[in-house]
UniProtKB/TrEMBL annotation:
<dbReference type="InterPro" id="IPR052515">
    <property type="entry name" value="Gfo/Idh/MocA_Oxidoreductase"/>
</dbReference>
<feature type="domain" description="GFO/IDH/MocA-like oxidoreductase">
    <location>
        <begin position="138"/>
        <end position="249"/>
    </location>
</feature>
<dbReference type="InterPro" id="IPR036291">
    <property type="entry name" value="NAD(P)-bd_dom_sf"/>
</dbReference>
<dbReference type="InterPro" id="IPR055170">
    <property type="entry name" value="GFO_IDH_MocA-like_dom"/>
</dbReference>
<feature type="domain" description="Gfo/Idh/MocA-like oxidoreductase N-terminal">
    <location>
        <begin position="9"/>
        <end position="126"/>
    </location>
</feature>
<protein>
    <submittedName>
        <fullName>Gfo/Idh/MocA family oxidoreductase</fullName>
    </submittedName>
</protein>
<dbReference type="InterPro" id="IPR000683">
    <property type="entry name" value="Gfo/Idh/MocA-like_OxRdtase_N"/>
</dbReference>
<dbReference type="Pfam" id="PF22725">
    <property type="entry name" value="GFO_IDH_MocA_C3"/>
</dbReference>
<dbReference type="Pfam" id="PF01408">
    <property type="entry name" value="GFO_IDH_MocA"/>
</dbReference>
<dbReference type="GO" id="GO:0000166">
    <property type="term" value="F:nucleotide binding"/>
</dbReference>
Length: 344
């Protein structure tokens, strides 16, 4: 497969608000990745998107999947519209790169992962925070055990989303479309990164609520205690009710140092007095504009996925790794509903 110039050939399905960083990323990768077509049901908005970014419009996602040159599809639809598309892609033997979350529920997400496994197509899930330079540096240090045993974790996602212009959009913050609120739509990125760096959570004790700042079906505030498989303990808070919004922060306390990731910046303070800083000048999408972040993390993840397909390896973020954060979110919401400690 691939196009006439030997570039990885991809189709894009869905081109709403969250598509901008993907489009910019694909433009930056045009030497190695070719966008064969973009499909969105709203034709006027599709034409506007394609005109803005210089991509060809597709008549349908079925037409994209029927193109023999196509290697993979990038699916950017709302979560409730994905299962049918992924099923069709898997049946056509096309690899799938999917915007988070995999689906609205653990059961539906597991079905998508299983159908890609059965069809022997690769399933990647967009978790671009894994590809931040600071995240990679800390992951390498942890893998090399530079700071000793992990003992405690503290995650804060103090974001803001306005009612007008965000939650007033049809379907936003509903179970039917999104599958939940701040956890599955916003904090899922930070939770996934936490799991990648810290290992699995074995139990949670949580409280979820909808503040009086929003009128929505699902939660805009969650706090929880966390118990990790490796014996570490932790706490997390995530909200979209923190006006005007601030950067997410993940602090890891090790035996010999503490490390804090704040958006794309890393600060490590060792017990022997050394301070290590690594950073990048960027916002994190914590304020009213949810797209206020660079596209280079998306570019790195798309490039990783294409390379994984070309070399028949697993991408950094797969459907199977995504299931860990899905099960954690499910446990957090069950714990709040049942008012007790819940195992993941």
């Amino acid at each position: 497969m691939s196009d006439e110039q030997g570039r990885f050939a991809i189709g894009v399905i869905g081109a709403g608000m969250g598509a901008k960083p993907h489009a910019l990323a694909l433009q930056s990768l045009s030497d190695t990745i070719n966008v064969l077509g973009v499909y969105r049901r709203n034709r006027a908005e599709l034409d506007s998107f394609c005109s803005t970014y210089g991509f060809p419009a597709a008549e349908s996602y079925e037409a994209l999947l029927a193109d023999p040159r196509l290697d993979a599809v990038l699916v950017l639809t709302t979560p409730n519209a994905r299962e049918e598309i992924v099923a069709a892609a898997a049946a056509a033997g096309k690899h799938v790169l999917l915007e988070k979350p995999v689906e609205r529920s653990v059961a539906a997400a597991e079905r998508i992962v299983a159908m890609c496994d059965a069809a022997d197509v690769k399933l990647g899930v967009i978790f671009q925070h894994r590809f931040r330079r600071a995240s990679r540096i800390l992951a390498e240090a942890i893998a090399e055990n530079r700071y000793g045993r992990l003992e405690a974790v503290h995650l804060v996602v103090p974001w803001w989303r306005p009612q007008e212009g965000y939650y007033d959009q049809p379907g936003r913050g509903t179970l039917a479309q999104d599958g939940g609120g701040v956890l599955i739509t916003q904090a899922i990125h930070s939770l996934d990164l936490m799991l990648r760096l810290c290992g699995e959570v074995k139990a949670v004790t949580a409280m979820a609520a909808t503040t009086r700042l929003h009128q929505m079906e699902t939660e805009d505030f969650v706090s929880a205690g966390l118990e990790f498989d490796n014996g570490a303990v932790g706490a997390m808070m995530a909200t979209t009710a923190n006006f005007p919004g601030g950067p997410e922060s993940l602090t890891l306390n090790f035996a010999d140092a503490s490390a804090t990731l704040t958006a794309g910046n890393l600060t490590v303070q060792t017990r022997n007095g050394e301070t290590i800083t690594e950073g990048e000048a960027s916002q994190g999408g914590g304020g009213a504009d949810p797209m206020a972040f660079p596209f280079d993390w998306h570019a790195a993840q798309i490039a990783d996925f294409a390379d994984a397909v070309d070399h028949d390896r697993n991408p950094v973020s797969t459907g199977h790794t995504a299931m860990h954060v899905h099960r954690l979110i499910d446990a957090l919401m069950r714990s709040s509903k049942e008012g007790k400690r819940v195992t993941v």
